[in-house]
Structure formats: structure tokens, C-alpha cells
Design a protein that fits this description.
single chain; alpha/beta; Rossmann fold; three-stranded mixed beta sheet; binds glutamine
Length: 191
Amino acid sequence: MGLKIGILALQGDYHKHGQAVTKLGYEPVFVKDNQTLNQCDKLIIPGGESTTFLYLIDKLELRPALLEFGREKAIMGTCAGLITLAAEVKQSPYKTLGLIDIKVYRNAYGRQIDSFVDTVELYFNDTPISFEGVFIRAPKIESCAHGIKKLGFHKNDTVVAANENILVTTFHPELTDDLRVHQYFIEKIGL
Ligand code: GLN
């Protein structure tokens, strides 16, 4: 298909996303500058530490290009990537990108030791699917603005949300062998 899938590679587990993209038959491109970003068709912002991402995004002057990319093309954010993309974040010392209108709590489940794995239900089409959700110092989506689609749930919490071209997950789909979240993002979001 020849799509180039950018993966923001400033910090965090970008390498694992690269493996998922490769397994699906697409070309991963590790992005550290504006020029590389502009060669990509879609972008993934991985898990890691959102404060580090946001600090480096401004230090490396990536913010305007990321905002433009997010207005025109599809972006998926996982965990810290979700925080980076959100409109409003409790306990974020840095200004986020605001590309998806959700309110987020950082570290909502507690500290690193409170990380866990549990089944989540995803509603990508009419038939819900079960997926192994790896939650590592994960955020919670506190609320979604009108028009934001809620596509995945863990207990009563929304763990996957999307607008037309931005898809976010509070867990880490790249840490399982199940490629269905990446596939959904690459093949269905923002076309
Ligand atoms: N707690 C981290 C943050 O606030 C996110 C953790 C993760 O990406 N696994 O950025």
C-alpha cells in the first residue's frame, strides 16, 4: 500500500510501534524533525512520558508542524501520546496539542506499581472485540466533548476515543501481539 507511518521518536516505546507497523506491511518512519514528519502519511505518538514529549516538542520546534499535520492527517496517540494530543489535562505542567477534545487525568490509576493488564472491549464495527489492555501509569479520560466517538471500554471507563482523524488509547496496544488497533488506525481513521 506504500503508506508511510511516522512514529514520534523523541522518547518512549516508539520501537514497539515500529514493529507493529512493519508486521502489518507498512513502512515505519521514526520522526525527530519537521522534515521527516512531512514525509509521513500518518503519525503515531507512543507511550512514554508526556511531560518529556511536550518539553522536547517545543525545544525542537515541532509544535506548529504537528498541529498542521493533525488538522490534515491522521494521528494515533497511546497513553502518553493520548495526553499529548488532548485538549485538557489535569496535572500537566506543559500545554498539550489540543487536537482531540477530551479531558484527561494523568496517572489516574496511581503509581507505576499500580500498572495492570486487563481485557478491554473495543467497538470498531458492529461486533465488539476483546483486546488485552496493558495499562502502565495510565491516564483516564474524564470526559469527551460532543461528537467524540467512544470506541473502547474498561469497566465504566472510556479507554479509546476518536474524532475524524485522531484516535487515542489510554493503554498500550503495541505491547501485545494483537495488531487490530494499529490496523484500525492505519486502514480506517482519517481516510
Ligand atoms: N504517566 C505517563 C505520563 O503522564 C504516561 C505513561 C505511559 O505512557 N505509559 O505521561
